[in-house]
Amino acid sequence: MTRRDPFDEIEELLERMGREFEELGGTLDGTAPEVPRLPGARDVDVDVIEDDESITVVADLPGFDADDVDVELRDDALVIAGSREESTDFALAGEGDAEREDAEGADANDGDSETDDDVRYHRRERRLRSVSRRVPIPQRVEADAATASFDAGVLTVTLPKRSPDDDRGHTIDVS
Amino acid sequence: MNTTNPFDEIEQFLGRSPFSGERTWGRDLRTADIDVAEYDDEFVVVADLPGFDRDGIDVRTDDGRLTIAAERDAEREDADRRYLRRERRHESVTRTVELPATVRPEDATATYRHGVLTVAIPLDALDTDEGHRIDVN
To answer: What interface predicted TM-score (ipTM) does this complex get?
Structure first.
């Protein structure tokens, strides 16, 4: 079989630790400042861009279908999740990718077990499992007016900022 | 067969950018994550290239190497548009893979779907070249 690069293993370990930190951070949400994350611990790479009207979150989710992607605005964070079958089989991700649309499910699995025996992996860097990411949103936004699009493995979520007036509660004139 | 050019790696490590933020934990923002698998009759490279157009992706074989290059328009940043986080890979990424000697690049196929590029290159069976066998009567 393939010889594993020891650095891959270390990176994997760090990644796992980072995920646990992040999960912990999620449960403490609101009561503690954001738990620091280990570098490289992220599942999903994101850009967060702010302009006058909105905050835009752009997330890389290569290999996912729009149907596999879940976006939720929870308190002051955007939670992005991409789910797929936990299969780490290369053939499914690689060759199967093109066929998956036609031959979803059982057919694809049959082919995999056959090719499994005589394949040699030179590199395996891609993440083939389900992923998730919690992105803190630093400002109050209009959740109802949020829009999302998904194209070529990239998710774009636009969150219009809440106008400052809405935040201030009711002002009482002093006469 | 399995090795990449060590100088490529050093070059990648040193980087060309003045910003340390260009690299995050062993991850070069100017390359793509790939899987490389060799089957009996096929060599398959799968690359994550989220957010590109088919037209922006260039795949070529040359001198026993496969080179994948992808480019998209740079996203603008100005006074009205600030990045609060910037983790995604660059607008231009390249990746090179050494190919086995038995590949038939002229029969290669490439597909791009959901931000993933799959390149499949057929391999010649090794034993067809083993010379002519003469039966002993």
So the answer is: 0.72
pTM of this prediction exceeds 0.80: no
Give the residue among A74, A62, A113 at the shortest CA–CA distance from A92.
A113
- Tokens representing A172 are 């009482």
Q: Residues A118-175: pLDDT tens digits?
A: 889 998 888 778 889 999 998 889 988 999 999 999 999 999 998 766 555 566 777 7
Domain boundaries, chain B: 29-77+86-124
Scanning every residue of chain B, which has its alpha carbon at the shortest distance from the alpha carbon of A121?
B37
Q: Are A162 and A84 spatial neighbours (Cβ–Cβ below 8 Å)?
A: no
Domain spans in chain A, listed from the N-terminal domain onward:
1-41, 43-84+130-168, 87-126
Structure confidence by residue, pLDDT tens digits, B27-44: 677 889 999 999 989 999
Q: Which residues of A touch B97 (CB under 8 A)?
A: 122-123
- List strand residue ranges (DSSP E) for A1-100, in order: 46-50, 54-60, 69-74, 77-82
Nearest CB to B33: which of A40, A51, A125?
A125
Q: What is the CATH number of domain A43-84+130-168?
A: 2.60.40.790
Which residues, 6 or more positions from A120, have their beta carbon under 8 angstroms from its beta carbon? A2, B37, B38, B39
Topology (CATH) of B29-77+86-124: Immunoglobulin-like (2.60.40)
